Every structure is written in structure tokens, then in C-alpha cells.
Amino acid sequence: MKTKLFTRVTALSIAVTFVALLLGLIGAAMSSFYPGLAVLIVMALITISSRLYATRISARSNDFQRNYYTIFTIINVLLILIALWMTFVIVHDRVLGDC
Question: Which residues cross the membrane (predicted)?
Fold first, then answer.
């Protein structure tokens, strides 16, 4: 019952989070330690664990699966927005240094 929307949003969330994490590492290498890296690592763990757990719930009821996919689709969309904002902040604060 895995929905296409959940699969696409989760894949996009993983990609955006890892790009932000990569830019954070570049920014930390150029300037100094960036505490936002810990937040980005936790965000990456949430997206990866939601995708891994989705493969394990196939034996559960349809109502449980529908609730899980709905909730984690919303969470992953929010994580995409947070990662995009953090990418903007990292690039302008750490990489470009114009803030």
C-alpha cells in the first residue's frame, strides 16, 4: 500500500537533507565548526528511518499504514523546508561569508 507520494517526498527529503549536510561540511571546513550540522544529521536520520520503517509495516493493517504514510509525508515535507532554509543560511553565512 506504499503510496507514490510518500516515496517521492521521502526521496526528495533525503536528497535535500544530504545536500544541506554536504554544504554544511564544506562551510565547516572553510570557517569553523557549525552547530547546525548536528541538526542536519538528526534530520537525515529521521528521513532514512521513515523510509526503512515503511518497508517493515507491510504486515500491519491498512489503517495503520495509511496513518503512517500520511504523518511521515507531512513530516518529510517539513524537513524539506527546514533543510532548504538551513542550506540558504549555511551558504550565505559560512560558504559565501556575506552575512
Answer: 12-30, 36-54, 66-91
Name the pTM for this structure: 0.84
What's the number of CA atoms in the CB half-sphere (13 Å) around residue 19? Answer: 17
Alpha carbons within 13 A on the beta-carbon side of 71: 9
Asked whether residue 1 carries a pLDDT value surpassing 60, the answer given is: no
What are the residues whose beta carbons fall under 8 Å from the beta carbon of 98, sequence distance 6 or more?
A: 92
Cell 538551513 appears where? Answer: 86
Confidence of residue 27 (pLDDT cuts 50, 70, 90): confident
DSSP letter string over 2-70?
--HHHHHHHHHHHHHHHHHHHHHHHHHHHSS--THHHHHHHHHHHHHHHHHHHHHGGGS-HHHHHHHHH
Per the listing, cell 544530504 goes with: 18
C-alpha to C-alpha distance for 52 and 49, rounded to whole angstroms: 5
Task: Report the residue count for the chain.
Answer: 99
Q: Grid coordinates in use for 12?
A: 526528495
